Sequence to fold (343 residues):
Amino acid sequence: MSVPADRFFHVIDPRTFDRQLLDELCEITSRVRTLAKSPEGARLLQMLLPDRRAMLYFTQPSTRTFLSFNNACHVLGIRTSEIRDPAISSEVKGESFADSIRTFSSYVDVIVMRTPEPGRAAEAARLMDMIPRPVPIINAGSGQDQHPTQALLDIYTLERSLEGRGGIDGKVIGLMGDLRRGRTVRSLCHLMRNYADVRLVFIAPESFAMEDDIKEYLWVHGIPFTETIDLASTLPELDAIYVTRMQSEWDTEGESARVDLGRFSIGPAQLSLMKPDAIIMHPLPRGGEIDPAVDHDPRAVYWRQERNGMWMRVAILLKIFRRDDQLLSLDLGDFTAPGETVA
Fold:
């Protein structure tokens, strides 16, 4: 059974997403959030995919991504199985990665996977495209390479947070921290080609600057960007700043500890330099790069961003299994209390 080329199936690489699909996913996400607020809507969501099963194959540590996917499945009535330690799979007996993935596909309808090695999800998707019963592969993070579903929830957070100012189009967005090893910022950069007149500012220590392949991609797609190590002079022009931690799990010689995080952090002093309607994002977990005192500032949206992850991943599953049309045809007014606004 081959998969039609125009069908939304695997979620591997953010470069495959166009503006129409991004807008559709954002609309589905908002509708899911509205439905989930009422008992009737939550029950309706539970009945959309009760016949489906998912494998959560996470061989790299994860809290938010794992829990959000697991709960996204539960929102839709999908039953889940999980492997979070390769030591308990048959790979320790010498089974190949390909054989493990094909085994999983015999029992479930979708495989969500996170691995410390880059390219594993793409490899699994290619395998699925060659077998009689392919199942979708969702990349939940592959090495230092890509994290497409994080980028999708980041787009949703940006669009919702900036909707009163026209959304993402025309905005100046700062990306700060360990950009060289940060797969979240790499994936978000790839999606920026879908938005008009966006300008990016990379704020990072020189040894952790954005990789050349991303800068080449931005240049080819006509997305202007600048690089700086001076946060203070940059903050006043930003509409959003996406802060990331030092990715110390990829250290080979303790290089993260040698970075002066004070120059690449947000605290009360930095808040005073920002636009009153700018937003602060972070994929979490955080280290010292965001002072907890910032949490109480209305411009800090990273806890909302985390919550958005579950709803966006519900939308992704609905799109994969082609239940999104059913959701989009609903009158949401039937699921909101009098006086309550639709999300």
Q: What stands out?
A: The chain is about 35% helix and 15% strand. The mean pLDDT is 90. The domain at 148-304 is CATH 3.40.50.1370 (Rossmann fold).
